[in-house]
C-alpha cells in the first residue's frame, strides 16, 4: 500500500544547526542544516552531512549555505531546497507520485508573523499540504515528558544553535517567555575570537565547534575535568603552523560573558512569572534541553545562581524533535498549534 498512501505525516525540528525529521515515531533524518549549491546554476549538490563535509572547504564554483541564522530563515531559496532534500531522505522509498504532506514544524517562540509565514511558505513549497507550527520551548517541554496541559507551572530552557528559548508553560499555553539570540553559534564565535586574541592562532568555525565539544565548560572548576585539547592552525602573523593545548578553564573563562546573558534571560523570565506558577517551578525544577544543555557544568552554574534545581533532559538534542512528533499525533487535542 506504500505506493498508494496519499498523505504522509512528518514532524520537523528545523534548527539552526541540525534539522531532525520524525515519521511514525521514528527519527528518520538527523542532519546538519547545511546545503551546497552550484554557484552558477544554483543546482543542489548536497544536503545535510555531505554538505557539511564541504563547509569551509569549497572552491568558487560551490556555495555552502546554512539557510537558518539565529533560528530564522536567512536564505529562502536555500531553505526550501534543503527542506525538499531532507523530506526526500525521510520518504526513502520511491513512489509513483509525491504524497501530500501533513507537517508539524518547531519554530522559535520569539518568531514574528513574517518569520512564521516564511517557514510556512518554505514548507508549502517543499510539498507540505497541511502545515502546523509549534513553538520550540513547547515542543521541548512535550519531548521532555512534561504534561503541558496540566494546571501547573513548568519551565524549560532550550539552548539551541541560534536562539535560547526560555518559557514557563501552564494549561497548554506559554505564560512568560524569553527568546534571546545567544546560543551555540555565539559560543562557537567566542572561541574563534578567543583563540585569535589569546593564542594568535586562526581557527575555523568547525574547529571551534570541536573545541567546544571536547573542552567546553560553563565552570572553571569541574569534578571530572576533560583533558586538554590540542588545536592546530596557522599563526595570525607568520602563517606558520602552530599547535596549542587548550584547557577547559580557558574555555570557561572565554564563554563566561555569553553564559551570563543566558542566566540574565532565565531570571527575566522568572520575574514575569505569577507567584503560584513560580512555586510550582521551585518544586519541579527547571529543565534544560537543546545542544547547549550538554555544556559541562551549565546545570550546576545555573543552580548556584538561582537556587532552583536544574535538570538536563535525557536526550537534550532530540527533545524538540520528540515533542513535534508527539504534537503531530495529537493535532486535534493540542489547540496551541499554529495553523
Describe the structure.
It contains ten helices and 17 strands. It is flat. It has 339 residues and is α/β, with parallel strands linked by helices. It has a five-stranded mixed sheet with strand order 3-2-1-9-10, with helices on both faces. It has a five-stranded mixed sheet with strand order 13-12-11-16-17, sandwiched between helices. The chain has a three-stranded antiparallel sheet with strand order 5-4-6. Helix content is 37%, strand content 27%. α2 (76-91) crosses α3, α4 packs across α10 (319-329) and α5 (184-198) runs antiparallel to α7 (248-271). The protein has helices at residues 49-54, 76-91, 113-125, 136-144, 184-198, 205-215, 248-271, 275-284, 298-306, 319-329, and strands at 7-14, 18-23, 26-32, 35-38, 44-47, 62-65, 68-69, 72-73, 100-107, 128-135, 154-159, 164-170, 173-180, 229-234, 241-246, 286-289, 310-312. A hairpin with a 2-residue loop joins β2 and β3 (26-32).
Amino acid at each position: 500500500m506504500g505506493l498508494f498512501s496519499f498523505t504522509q505525516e512528518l514532524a520537523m525540528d528545523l534548527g539552526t544547526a541540525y534539522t531532525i525529521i520524525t515519521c511514525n515515531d521514528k527519527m528518520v533524518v538527523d542532519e546538519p542544516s547545511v546545503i551546497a549549491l552550484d554557484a552558477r546554476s544554483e543546482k543542489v549538490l548536497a544536503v545535510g552531512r555531505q554538505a557539511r563535509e564541504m563547509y569551509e572547504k569549497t572552491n568558487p564554483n560551490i556555495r555552502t549555505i546554512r539557510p537558518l541564522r539565529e533560528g530564522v530563515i536567512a536564505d529562502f531559496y536555500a531553505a526550501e531546497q534543503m527542506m525538499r532534500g531532507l523530506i526526500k531522505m525521510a520518504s526513502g522509498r520511491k513512489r509513483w507520485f509525491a504524497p501530500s504532506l501533513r507537517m508539524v514544524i518547531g519554530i522559535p517562540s520569539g518568531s514574528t508573523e513574517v518569520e512564521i509565514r516564511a517557514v510556512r511558505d518554505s514548507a508549502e513549497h517543499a510539498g507540505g499540504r497541511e502545515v502546523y507550527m509549534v513553538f520550540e520551548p513547547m515542543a521541548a517541554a512535550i519531548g521532555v515528558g512534561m504534561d503541558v496541559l496540566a494546571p501547573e507551572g513548568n519551565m524549560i530552557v532550550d539552548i539551541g544553535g541560534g536562539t535560547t528559548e526560555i518559557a514557563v508553560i501552564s494549561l497548554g499555553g506559554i505564560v512568560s517567555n524569553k527568546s534571546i539570540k545567544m546560543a551555540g553559534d555565539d559560543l562557537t564565535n567566542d572561541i574563534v575570537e578567543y583563540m585569535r586574541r589569546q593564542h594568535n592562532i586562526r581557527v575555523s568555525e568547525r574547529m571551534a565547534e570541536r573545541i567546544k565539544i571536547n573542552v567546553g565548560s560553563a565552570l572553571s572548576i569541574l569534578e571530572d575535568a576533560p583533558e586538554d585539547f590540542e588545536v592546530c592552525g596557522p599563526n595570525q602573523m607568520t602563517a606558520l603552523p602552530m599547535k596549542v593545548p587548550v584547557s577547559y578553564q580557558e574555555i570557561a573563562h572565554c564563554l563566561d560573558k555569553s553564559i551570563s546573558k543566558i542566566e540574565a534571560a532565565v531570571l527575566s523570565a522568572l520575574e514575569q512569572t505569577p507567584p503560584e506558577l513560580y512555586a510550582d517551578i521551585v518544586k519541579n525544577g527547571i529543565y534544560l534541553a537543546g545542544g547547549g544543555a550538554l555544556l559541562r557544568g551549565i546545570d550546576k552554574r545555573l543552580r548556584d545562581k538561582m537556587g532552583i534545581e536544574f535538570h538536563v533532559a535525557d536526550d537534550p538534542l532530540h527533545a524538540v524533535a520528540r515533542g513535534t512528533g508527539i504534537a503531530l499525533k495529537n493535532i486535534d487535542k493540542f489547540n496551541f498549534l499554529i495553523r
